[in-house]
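Duplicate of earlier report; PSD1 and planctomycete cytochrome C domain-containing protein input re-posted below.
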Amino acid sequence: MKVIVRLVLLFCLSLRAVPAAEEMAAAHADIPADRLQFFEKHIRPVLVEHCYKCHSTESEKVKGGLTLDTRQGTVLGGESGHPGVTPGNLSESSLYHAMTWADDDMQMPPKNRLPDEVIANFKKWIEMGAPDPREQKVAGATGGRREINMAEGRKHWAFVPPAEAPVPELKTPDWAMSKIDQWVLAGLEQAGLKPAAQADRRTLIRRIAFDLTGLPPTPEEVEAYVNDTSPQATQRVVDQYLESPRFGERWGRHWLDVARYGESSGKEVNLLYPHAWRYRDYVIDAFNRDKPYDQFLKEQIAGDLMRFENKRDQAEKIVATGFLAIGSKGHNNRDRRQFNMDLVDEQIDALSQSMLGLTLACARCHDHKFDPVTQRDYYALAGIFLSSETLYGTHQQLQNNNPGTLIELDPAAQQVSALAKIAPAEAVELKQRYDTAQKAAEEAQRDITSLSREDRERNGAASFLRIRAARDRAESVKADLDQFHDDGTPRTLAMGMLDRARPVNSPLLVRGDLKQPADIVPRGLVEVLCAEGEPHNISEGSGRLDLAWFIASKENPLTARVMANRIWLKLMGSGLVSTPDNFGIMGQKPSHPELLDFLALSFMQQGWSVKQLIREIMLTRSYQMASTYDAHNFAVDPDNKLHWRMNQRRLEAEAVRDAMLSVSGNLNLYPVDGSPVARAAEGREGLLMLNRELVGKPYNYRSIYLPIIRDLIPEALSVFDFPDASLVNGERDSTNVPSQSLFLMNNPQVLSAADALAARIAKQPGSPMDRLAYAYQLVFSRAPTEPELAAIRSFWMRFPPQVAGGKSTQQARDQAQYAALSAFCQSLFASAEFRYLN
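Output:
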């Protein structure tokens, strides 16, 4: 017990809960919240469990002079003279070198090498700059264990229910078109700032089109809007794009970032999840139909337990629970109990950040270091998920020690399949192949069993590999066989959740260690989010249905705020809360708290309609402002936190790729049935098959339908900051690096799109200059300016003759002109204007 108290003292030297946490938040404001969370979740617990006994200031004898319980000691290193950790530099981090066991003379921990996943986390931590909030301990410091005061905890702004406040009196009230504008203007006037002018029509429709559909407007749509002089012109354009099927593909992708969508397990083995695509399609459809957001959340937590209207509705609700099944997993873990606890931890982490904006998983090993969340809260939630079965569908194979099944959907639900029907004879052949493979595996086992014991040490490795290979072949065939009924009809299978026959409660694990179980914790909800005195334990069933209603309740102070902030962020370029996945004490306070509350209340009052909230924001002066620079405003508010202009934004990876395909005329808008992952084989063979299918071959569907294999993201996405598909990502990074320019210069798909755009504008009637001007309208939604026209003329006079190389034949001239057109089109794709929204 003394050791636990001492460890808590590293951060919590005050008996006050929330004030102490807020002081720590202020002290470590330079560490981004997500990186701080990574340290608390993946680094600190390992150091405590495996290193502090010999390498802390509390050790009876500090071995090698190395202390690892403070940031300073960790960086300094020990008696060897080598730094323990050099932020951003693995080769100069002796701690990492020691834990890899690469050197026989320096292996830490000395008896048991840490799991590969843990070592990978330390690698990632060092590469991200080794964020570490631990301060140097002062000799003789004393203090008590942090006692969490829930009454004080509920006073944190995010835990107080949203309430509408009166708008202050405005100096220029005529500017505002809505309550949203009034709150924005109030903040600007208080700071002595003035809002930017209205954006011009061409800029505005391009902004609206990309924000709602992820695609550029057509020249015809632009001209229609420019020429529409009615007061309802902008409203009509917004409504037009909101009703487009492209809306769900655009906004569904935003949610898939938050839902850490991926079609493989990631981590060391990276097994494929052939049926993850059903959840993707569910999300797209939900946004297109404007499914009420509270219902959307309930279905993802407990859709299998909810009432349904018919078999199709039931199937959709079951597929929705794929949210909890698609996360990354360490399938090679030999301890099934540890695998299950890690799976539950990942589910709690994803659910709490995505829906509540809280980092509840930080309470796995100890009470939350900052928020009023106890370890008991964590294990109360853990019991809910341990009482449910996660079905993800992987077959037994080498390095997959944790296979799983799937949920078969009722044929009456009429769900689409990724596979075509096969002939009954083929189904019979598959069954025969499986029987043969299974028989071979059994024979291999018998042959080896019949050997003498001496022959089995001698040939142990070879014997194991022979059996393993035979079993893997059988399981691979079984994976194919399980996809079909006896008549060759494909089975409709889905990832998801089902309740176990008997619910269980989880013990509280000291330091998160399975070997140190303490009291049994009843299944329940997060205490700080419940009203004082309100019962939060669950007595019947798994508790997932209770959890779903608790999270999606209008009484929950977080849910509506978190989603309203996500919508504002996607439309405005920055959130009212700049840490969209963390509304806790280590997150940032809202720049406009009254506006955030107004949006949250409006969201709920309008039936949790995502489309209505988007529409409400878009039809404001705040959204329709230009992105022009103002020296005075910039000097006062350089980060545009008060929103005195529209933020200039770089298009996301999918929008860049889709826009190139769209303007070139090559974009296939037909929704994809399934995913190439569903048609790939099991194991490494499947990964190789996917690579052959997708690399170098045209895949002209929208980017949301590209296979998302964790750690193998397509280059067209990864080069433009596609997020880590294993983590909740409410806000993507946006970088401007040389690799992006090189991609736009050299990638075969970019060159192909440029060729297709050249062929498209070559068919346009008029002179060469007319055709080049039309390319501007397609790519930039505007005509070229006079200086640009002059540059185009100069290019057209010089470039084709250079390509022709003095050849005067008609064929040479035609080829030169086509090459010039293609180069011109590629230059438009490579321009900053194409990749940015103003």
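The chain is about 50% helix and 5% strand.

Merging into the original ticket.
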